[in-house]
Amino acid sequence: MSINTAKPKHQRNSYGKPPSVFRKTFLPLLVIIVGMLVMLYPVYASQWNNFQQHKISQRYQEDIQQADPHKLSEAVEKAREYNKQHTNGPILDPWLARVNEDNTEYRDYLAQLSGQSAMSIVSIPSIESQLPVYHGTTDEVLQKGLGHLYGSALPVGGKGFHSVITGHTGLSNATLFDNLIDVKKGDAIYVSTFGEKLKYQVVDTEVVLPDQIDGLKAKPGQDLLTLVTCTPYGVNTHRLLVHAKRVPLDPSDEEAFSNKGWKIQPWMWGLMALALAIITILVWWIRREKRKVKSLESK
After folding, report:
1. How many domains does the chain have?
2. pTM, whole model, 2 decimals?
3. pLDDT digits (tens, 9 = 90+) for 268-293
4. CA–CA separation, 88 vs 152, rounded Å?
């Protein structure tokens, strides 16, 4: 007598019925969906914050267009006078040094170019970036946008002045200055401050230690702007400085101040492509399980 030891191709439950597709796929499906949500959260968080920064930049420009031109001009002139009276302000690393925000001088600084949703807007067409600039470089400021370095000149231009704008690189929930490393010599940087529109051209980039601040000091007769962020990505032991010099505005430059949105990072495309691949495999697997159950039910 021979005994058949082969296992049945399809396992049936105690009632002789094949298990449903739902029961077989629910737990794996749940685990995969939760995993995908966790994986895609940085993309969602970054895009949401990028959208918020886009809205603030847009609102800032709309508010400036609707504001009293005389009051805007007064604010800019007041900022220029402030710069003349504070040529020897402290230049400190924005991530390692903190300024006492309760002192009179800092409160006077906060009163300059105030009353709008931001101090200024910085546009860098070469990396598709347009971000709001706020007073100071506190953690709160640098989490939501760019920060003007207290001690440097307010961003209203002028020979003999040097404005410094700082921003994070490597945040999991915002792009900010992630692409600043791609800015090259000759690229244009545009600044819009209370209706005053300025154009700067990148003349040099350098990587320095946090305490090397000579590149942030003003130079006689030159109108300078420097953008600062941490580097290398995720390590942050050094500072990337992008130095730019004031150049004349052309009529064609007006388009650079328009708010066109933001750039989707390569790593975001990678995660979304991976998620799409997982969804495709998941759909294929569920359909295969359905075919198995239908085949078993037909027997």
Report:
1. 1
2. 0.76
3. 666 667 777 777 777 777 777 677 76
4. 9
